[in-house]
Amino acid sequence: MDAIRIRGGRPLRGRVPVSGAKNAALPILCATLLSDGESLLRNVPALRDIETTAALLRFLGRDVEVGDGTVLVKQATVAPRPEAPYELVKQMRASVLVLGPLLSRFGRAKVSLPGGCAIGARPIDQHLKGLQAMGATIELERGYVIARVPDDGRLRGTEFCFDLVTVTGTENLMMAATLARGRTTLVNCAREPEVEELARVLNKMGARIQGAGSSEIRIEGRDELQPFDHAIIADRIEAATFMIAAAATGGDVLVDHAPAEQLEAFMSKLVHAGCDVTREGTGVRVARHGKLQAVDITTAPYPGFPTDIQAQFMVLMCLAEGRSAITETIFENRFMHVSELARMGADIDVRGHTCIVHGVPHLTGASVMATDLRASASLVIAGLVATEFDTEIRRVYHLDRGYERIEHKLAGIGADIERIRGAAA
Ligand code: EPU
């Protein structure tokens, strides 16, 4: 298993590029199941989750070529197999995104239940309720969801209101509705940019979707869809991670292609924490000269402060003057980085869904363990500011799920960072 070693204490300076958005690419790859023919996706990040999705699509009977920043999905000569096995789904929860497309396209689907994960139980009840509202019968058998369309062979349009805001739930139902009979109205939808991006692609395929990006989405079902050619939007979470790294190290970095308009809640907190944040050309420049100030944050669905930036922002608050309250409202177990940060000298009290972070003058390098994707990113940032000893982050396969060549990108802006291949677990 690989590890990452960082010798911290150097301010980051220069320009760093942002890759295509993982959480936009995954549903769009699943949307290729909705049509025949060749679909081409560009600006795709080289990540483990993309490889897992490619493997899943191959298992489902597609021919998939992963190139340099591209994924080409072709119809294979073998008959399609609408079945997503546990071995693939357990590696990546987003695999559940094949359920809606498989069901509406092939009339049936067998998809393994994803099970819990490190950050929470993460049920998919809303995905299933929505499909049932569209006429699907759903059975749960030996850990699998077995879904079938009604006897007339198609899902039917309906009005469905989500009990809570779910990103992949909205995406799954939106994809299912594109081939349903009649009109579907989805209410209380996730408004994330990745949902809007998926709707953009589905509309390119010939779907009729209105309202994506708002809480009500209307979809007029079509008889068939066409393949597409599309370049993915930039990754707002990766961009934010680099901005925090620049701020934490007291550096000055231009984050190229950072989608500023999607990061307003986060950028305003960065400014309140004492950073200079300016839009410059196609990116955002973040610099810090003075001391960091404590600010409180509460995660919320878009356009609120993203849960996917909570762990990284916490590192910044570990170094701020004063006391900050960080409240997580999306996932019930997303504070696993706290005990690792404590090993580096952070002073954090966990009180239920809130962490009270007392700023300390500095963090100290240590051996730490990555537990999930964003927790790993927070440990990298902590390693970049830590002094006295090197930081060694183990189990970086979590990091490789969502950050493309992170050590190369950080080294490019002055970090002393290296990957150690085959380190102890
Ligand atoms: N939930 C339910 N029932 C459902 C669906 C969700 O109770 O049927 C709950 C979840 O357990 C959670 C909350 O609703 O407490 C929100 O979950 P959501 O469904 O929105 O999360 P997701 O769609 O599984 C996506 C991203 C996550 C990101 C969340 C929240 C993808 C592939 N994943 O997950 O990204 O944290 O939305 O914004 O888009 C990451 O990239 O590190 C990551 C975890």
Could you please describe the fold and organization of this structure?
With 425 residues, the chain is of the alpha/beta class. It folds into two domains: 3-18 and 234-420, Alpha-beta prism (UDP-n-acetylglucosamine1-carboxyvinyl-transferase, Chain), CATH 3.65.10; 22-231, UDP-n-acetylglucosamine1-carboxyvinyl-transferase, Chain. The protein has helices at residues 22-31, 48-59, 86-89, 99-106, 125-133, 167-178, 193-204, 236-248, 264-272, 310-318, 337-343, 373-385, 397-402, 406-412, and strands at residues 3-7, 13-17, 39-42, 62-66, 70-75, 83-84, 108-112, 137-141, 144-148, 159-161, 183-187, 208-210, 216-220, 229-231, 252-256, 276-280, 283-287, 297-298, 323-327, 347-351, 354-358, 367-369, 391-394, 416-420. Helix 6 links the parallel strand 10 (159-161) and strand 11 (183-187). Helix 8 packs parallel to helix 12 (373-385) and helix 10 runs parallel beside helix 12 (373-385). The radius of gyration is 22 Å and the shape is elongated. The termini are close together. The mean pLDDT is 95. It binds uridine-diphosphate-2(N-acetylglucosaminyl) butyric acid.
